[in-house]
TrEMBL record:
GO terms for biological process: protein stabilization. Keywords: Chaperone. Signal peptide: none annotated. This is Ubiquitin-like domain-containing protein. GO terms for cellular component: cytoplasm. The keyword Cell membrane does not apply. It comes from Manihot esculenta (Cassava). The lineage of its organism: Eukaryota, Viridiplantae, Streptophyta, Embryophyta, Tracheophyta.
Length: 255
């Protein structure tokens, strides 16, 4: 009976150990009031929270972060965002060779004071940032090109105004001056068409295109008005004057 009792004891211990292992591997989850899914805590164990000092490695950089022992890895990511500038969604935290989920508790995963964790930027985040940098570079390049065209259009618009003022005043302008100005404006229109713009740069491009079009239309109308202006012929009429009469001098005779 005693021997059987020992066998039963070993079986019971083995069963208990196996059950404990299964409980460790099967992580239960629960929903917090804010909607965040977190690892379910064992309500029968009351452990007072402590402050843990974690050593975080991020590439060649090293950080020491103080965090509540009952915090989650998601909350740790928020603290790391202030240090690294990485958004929580762009972070991956490795502890003991495994990536940890946002809802897992530090203490339930075995994190202790002065534990080491590895912070990695999500490769998808790196790719997104690279794409955004290229996009920003294209936008800045478009802004510079449009600004250059805008300055040229400003100068040409001043010449259009001067020609319009002359013709309105009845002064005929050489036609070649008008046609040359139209050609110069069309060159700026071609430059605008070659600029690849998006966002607010696209709006600026459209605005400058309308300015060029308006100047060309104005010159086309001025060309017609200029043809109707008759050249002013200035003639000089000389006035003739008669010489003054010669006064007769009376000579006085002396003996």
């Amino acid at each position: 009976m005693k021997k059987g009792s020992n066998v039963y004891g070993r079986m019971s211990n083995s069963s208990s150990s196996s059950s404990s292992t299964l409980r460790d591997e099967d992580v239960e989850w629960e929903m917090r009031p804010g909607g965040m899914l977190v690892q379910k805590r064992n309500e029968t164990i009351e452990v007072p929270p402590t402050i843990l000092r974690l050593r975080v490695a991020y590439g060649a950089l090293r950080y020491e972060i103080s965090v509540n022992s009952q915090a989650t890895f998601g909350e740790l990511k928020k603290l790391l965002m202030a240090e690294t500038g990485l958004q929580p969604g762009d972070q991956k935290i490795m502890f003991r060779g495994k990536e940890r989920e946002n809802g897992q508790y530090l203490e339930l995963c075995g994190v202790k004071d002065k534990s080491k964790v590895l912070l990695i930027e999500d490769p998808a985040s790196i790719e997104r940032r690279y794409i955004q940098m290229r996009k920003n570079s294209r936008i800045q390049s478009a802004h510079r090109a449009i600004s250059s065209v805008s300055m040229e259009v400003d100068k040409l618009a001043e010449q259009v105004s001067a020609i319009e003022k002359s013709i309105s005043g009845g002064i005929k302008v050489p036609e070649v001056q008008i046609t040359t100005l139209i050609e110069m404006l069309m060159r700026q229109a071609i430059k605008l068409d070659s600029i690849s713009a998006e966002g607010d740069a696209s709006s600026l491009k459209t605005l400058q295109g309308k300015r060029v079009q308006k100047c060309v239309e104005t010159l086309d109308a001025l060309k017609i008005s200029n043809a109707k202006v008759k050249p002013v012929i200035v003639t000089t009429k000389w006035e003739t004057f008669d010489p003054p009469p010669v006064a007769l001098s009376q000579w006085e005779l002396f003996d």
